[in-house]
Design goal:
binds xanthosine-5'-monophosphate; alpha/beta; 514 residues; nine-stranded mixed beta sheet
Length: 514
């Protein structure tokens, strides 16, 4: 029996694969095809519905992608999203205009027709993600406006008789709070799908795809020991085994014992069949960082040195065909959706491709959210402590030591952080926390220990609750736990005579110290 299918017609937007994934999450099979897919082919494929994606163009542009009007006369339900909605309006005789200013970001829409099939179980006011300059100024004949915002007269429109629906906003991104419900509504209420498809295991499908793509090629992966790069590396190792080499750069700014932990899992004594190279580059990094206090300068030095070290190792390995990156979906969304000012220059392995000779990048996690990456990690047998590891910045302790980085300060912050994490785990308060760590302030102050005057550093403890890491609140760690941590740090970590707890939320603070 032929399975039901939704065709996602790609007009050049960034979330096209995500739209297909959202449909598949509803247990309906979806495929992305370029907008040049001939109408005859579409008829042959006999989809239950079609989704027209967003795209960067304006419908009035000379070279803008269009589709024959006949598409809308096939009797197949269609959902147009963003550019897709404008194209539907324009093709069917509505008016699309360019707004003087773009509407961009989270927006509350007023749902005008709550009884529309698209809005089943959707609130009268719901937050969606807008990202557009052009807008539909008047709808084509037979259409009605089903949602609007104060600046967007047609946030959604419908011609229920012809089963044509369109949204100016992006229901597929998670910022659209009830977006998945709308996609579900389109797929089930409008297209009347039965939901006969089951998502294959991501792991199995991806391993198969990687094998096909890589063939006999050589693959190189920068492994940081973080969740994303670890899961990407294991997927690749399961797919192509020893054709993969993982390079792990220990820049001396890792948490206590972390380098050895990563090596224990991925090295020759570990459970995976891959080539693992650990580069102990601590001294190099400390030398470069000597005397540097400015946070951005430190970040830059760490990022550049990382690339240099990686490059040298890559040269030893010789020409590679593929470079693996652990990019996950939020990274894609952030670089695509946001044009925000640089608050901190985030250093990830994302900077590598310029310097290493390779044919193609493989990003096996590109469409996954963090929770899905973790699930895949567990399925792949990666130890839980690695899978649930809290986020750790690329520049590592370099941004948790305020001011100049020295080997001595690294030792202090590593030891203090270790105690903090150990005590939080013992007290069972580590579970619900978004991120927690010790940082070393640049402040030294006077204290008294055993009748002697001390003049030592202050360690700051940080713990925040956050789900998106864009905003965060200080966590309420029980006072007795904090006191215990303080006592142990003062007693056990030489060079510290004061422990502070950071109450700052984000904004105005950031999660890290630099
Ligand atoms: P901030 O300090 O900007 O951090 O509030 C937000 C989240 O991002 C992490 N972070 C980084 N992650 N490279 C990374 O991969 C970086 O350069 C970097 N800087 C901050 C931080 O740990 C927090 O989870």
């Amino acid at each position: 029996m032929k399975k039901e299918m939704i065709i996602v017609l790609d007009f050049g937007g960034q979330y096209n694969q995500l739209i297909a994934r959202r449909v598949r999450e509803c247990n309906v099979y979806a495929e992305v095809h370029p907008y040049t897919l001939p109408i005859e082919k579409i008829k042959e494929m006999n989809p239950k519905g079609i989704i027209l994606t967003g795209g960067p163009n304006s419908v009035y542009g000379d070279d803008s992608p269009r589709y024959d009007k006949e598409l809308f006369e096939l009797g197949i339900p269609i959902l147009g999203i963003c550019y897709g909605s404008q194209l539907m309006a324009y093709t069917l005789g509505g008016v699309v205009k360019t707004a003087p200013v773009s509407e961009y970001g989270r927006t509350e829409v007023d749902v005008d027709k709550q009884d529309s099939l698209l809005f089943h179980n959707v609130d009268a006011k719901t937050v969606v993600w807008m990202s557009h300059t052009d807008y539909i100024a008047s709808v084509p004949e037979g259409f009605e406006i089903i949602a609007h915002t104060p600046v967007c007269p047609v946030a959604a429109m419908a011609n229920p008789d012809k089963k044509l629906y369109a949204t100016q906003y992006h229901p597929e991104v998670t910022h659209s709070v009830q977006g998945q419900q709308m996609i579900y509504n389109f797929v089930y209420n409008v297209c009347e799908c039965a939901g006969d498809w089951k998502m294959d295991s991501f792991v199995d499908t991806t391993i198969k795809e990687i094998r096909e793509k890589v063939g006999n090629g050589k693959v190189l992966c920068a492994l940081s020991g973080g969740v994303d790069s670890s899961v990407a590396a294991v997927l690749l190792s399961k797919a192509v085994g020893k054709q993969l080499t993982c390079v792990f750069v220990d820049h001396g700014l890792l948490r206590k014992n972390e380098g050895d932990e990563v090596e224990a899992v991925f090295g020759s004594k570990g459970q995976y069949d891959l080539n693992f190279v650990r580069v102990n580059a601590q001294e190099r990094f400390y030398e470069k960082l000597a005397g540097v206090e400015d946070p951005e300068a430190k970040r830059k030095i760490i990022g550049e040195e990382f690339i240099r070290v990686f490059e040298e190792e890559a040269k030893k390995i010789g020409a590679v065909d593929f470079l693996v990156q652990g990019t996950i979906y939020p990274d894609v969304i952030e670089s695509g959706l946001g044009k925000s000012a640089v608050i901190k220059s985030h250093h990830n392995v994302g900077g590598l491709p310029d310097c290493v000779d390779f044919k193609e990048i493989i990003e096996p996690l590109r469409l996954l959210f963090k929770d899905e990456v973790r699930r895949a990690g567990l399925e792949l047998g990666i130890p839980e402590y690695l899978v649930y590891r809290q986020p750790f910045p690329g520049p590592g302790l370099g941004v948790r030591i305020v001011g100049e980085v020295t080997a001595e300060k690294v030792r202090i912050v590593q030891d203090a952080d270790f105690i903090y994490r150990e005590e939080l785990a013992k007290a069972g308060c580590d579970k619900g926390l978004g991120q927690y760590f010790a940082a070393l302030t640049n402040m030294r102050s006077v204290g008294v220990m055993g009748d002697f005057r001390t003049y030592d550093y202050a360690v700051a403890l940080r713990a925040v609750n956050t789900s998106d890491f864009m905003t965060a609140d200080c966590s309420e760690i029980p006072f007795e736990v904090l006191q215990k941590v303080m006592t142990r740090i003062i007693n056990e970590v030489k060079g510290v005579n004061r422990v502070l707890y950071d109450l700052t939320s984000k904004p105005p603070g950031t999660i890290e110290f630099e």
